[in-house]
């Protein structure tokens, strides 16, 4: 748990308040949040569907990231009163407002991602 009165926390609040980029990155920064938002652009998904769609994320981290995105108002969590309980996640209006931003980030990444090195040529005997 972070100390709210530490100089790091105070500096972080100041920076987020003064800089739009810092504020945006505080909302979507990290390894998994952009992927979660990107998947939810297509519509409402259950937790298990998100887990399958985002390979490599642990259950614990996915739950934490979903909670943070919900707390920041970017996604909403819909709980259906069924047995067993069904939970779905969807983007809020604020979350959908990031669509163009996420698309630009995706396009930039695709254009600048290092290409895999070509495997060494295999010698063919005649």
From TrEMBL:
InterPro entries, per the entry = HTH_HxlR, WH-like_DNA-bd_sf, WH_DNA-bd_sf
User: Which is one GO molecular function term here?
Assistant: DNA binding
Every HTH hxlR-type domain range: 19-117
In terms of SUPFAM superfamilies, this protein maps to: Winged helix' DNA-binding domain (SSF46785)
Record keywords, A-Z:
DNA-binding, Transcription, Transcription regulation
Check the record and name the PROSITE patterns matching this protein: HTH_HXLR
The answer on whether this UniProt entry bears the keyword DNA-binding reads yes
* Protein name per Swiss-Prot or TrEMBL: Transcriptional regulator
Q: What is the lineage of its organism?
A: Bacteria, Pseudomonadati, Bacteroidota, Chitinophagia, Chitinophagales
């Amino acid at each position: 748990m972070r100390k709210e009165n530490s100089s790091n926390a105070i500096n972080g609040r100041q920076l987020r308040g003064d800089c739009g980029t810092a504020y945006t990155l505080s909302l979507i920064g990290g390894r998994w949040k952009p992927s979660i938002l990107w998947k939810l652009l297509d519509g409402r998904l259950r937790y298990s569907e998100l887990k399958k769609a985002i390979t490599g994320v642990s259950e614990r981290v996915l739950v934490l990231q979903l909670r943070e995105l919900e707390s920041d108002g970017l996604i909403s969590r819909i709980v259906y009163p069924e047995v067993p309980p069904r939970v779905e996640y969807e983007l809020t209006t604020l979350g959908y407002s990031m669509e163009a931003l996420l698309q630009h980030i995706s396009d930039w990444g695709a254009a600048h991602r290092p290409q895999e090195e070509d495997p060494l040529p295999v010698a063919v005997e005649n």
